[in-house]
Amino acid sequence: MVDVRTGQGNVKLTRDEFERRFRQRFSDPEFEQVHAQLVEIVDVAWKAYDEYHKSPRKRKAGPGFADPEFELPLEWLETRERIQQAERERKDPSSAGRILLVCGAARHDQTCPGEMSKTFRLASRAREEIERAGVRCDFLDLSLLTAEYGRQILPCKACVSTAMPLCHWPCSCYPNHAMGQVSDWMNELYPRWAAAHGVMIITPVYWYQAPSVLKLMIDRLVCADGGNPDQTTTHGKKVEEAKALELKGWHYPRHLAGRVFAVFVHGDTVGAETLRRSLTDWLTDMELIPAIPQGGIDRYIGYYGPYATSHEALDEDRAVQQEVRNAAKALVEAVAFARAGTLQRPADSDPRRK
User: Fold this and answer.
1) What are phi and psi of 62, to 5 degrees?
2) CA nearest 311: which of 120, 140, 146?
3) Which residues contact 155 (CB under 8 A, 6 or more apart)?
């Protein structure tokens, strides 16, 4: 009998509080002309919340699952199929090489900051080198989380800390229609990670740490490192079943292992080396392979200079711009070696593997 610890208290909202929160998204006076329709919509939304319609559209899992009769959410099955298709394409030796280039800054010139990030400029230099080499570049600009309507990555709920098999690959926590937790970008990003032969992350330092837009994605990729690809083995989120399954001996499948990576971190005063180490440790823990020494580069641009002239500082720092290009070139080369089976991998000497 496994032990499940609870006791944090009930979080169920009253009808009045639910409606107050729900209506906040319709505070624009333009919605007053559709007041009657909103009343009806609130009633439907409350019913879905009160009866907890997390995944209202499901079908039987079917062949290939431990329990083919168990019903699974359509959204999860669709994301799973896109991941599997991406994996098939990645393993096809006749397909073009593909690098996922991540721009980790939150700043975007079409929202409050009013100016593009230095990170975006550096990532654009890397993109030029990747495409010049004839490799497909999948440019992932995480600043769209701050600039585009409805673009969001919902936070990780840390199911893995309860039991690894409770953390599904891909993540099954979202969408949660009962809670209004929908339009989660990760359902698109999981297949993009799966499709990549190489990954390059270019990011600034925010308060000694990764920007929140990047950290959200990092946390949600926990399911790629040991996540359970068959949620019928836990019949959704059955905690007792997940704990029992882990205690029998979990195999910790590494869903992104073997891809190569490079990291470039920049700052203006402190923290760049710390973040570079954190990112390279995270990626190597998932058994991705560094394409350059120490996994990446950390540099300062306009060291202790004014923020207002930091773009000019980047203009003048030709060495940093070239280092980004060089890192991209090294990653392209490592992707070619990896696909040819000639990339030398670090020795497997971890005495405490998961």
Assistant:
1) 85, -170
2) 120
3) 216, 219, 220
Backbone angles phi, psi at 127, to 5 degrees: -60, -40
Non-local (6+) Cβ contacts of 44 within 8 A are: none
Taken in order of first residue, the domains within the chain and their CATH numbers are 54-108+115-340 (3.40.50.360)
DSSP-assigned letter for residue 231: G
Q: In the chain, count of helices (H) and strands (E)?
A: 11, 8
3-state secondary structure at position 58? strand
Neighbouring C-alpha atoms within 13 Å toward the C-beta of 284: 20
In angstroms, the CA 164 to CA 128 distance is 39
What is the largest distance, in Å, between two alpha-carbon atoms of the chain?
67
Q: How far apart are CA 257 and CA 188, in angstroms?
A: 19
- Cβ-in-10-Å burial (0-12, 13-18, 19+) of 119 comes to buried
Query: Please, what is the angle between helix 35-50 and helix 15-23, to 10°?
Result: 130
Q: Angle at Cα 93 formed by Cα 87 and Cα 97, nearest 5°?
A: 75
pTM equals 0.96
The closest alpha carbon to 254, from 316, 344, 161, 169, belongs to 169
Per-residue pLDDT for 351 more than 60? no
Give the type of residue at 314: L
Confidence of residue 122 (pLDDT cuts 50, 70, 90): very high
CA 302 – CA 266 distance, rounded (Å): 10
pLDDT at 14 over 80: yes
pLDDT value at position 353? 64
Query: What are the residues whose beta carbons fall under 8 Å from the beta carbon of 93, sequence distance 6 or more?
Result: 339
Cα distance between residue 194 and residue 192, in whole Å: 5
Cis bond before residue 290 (omega within 30° of 0): no
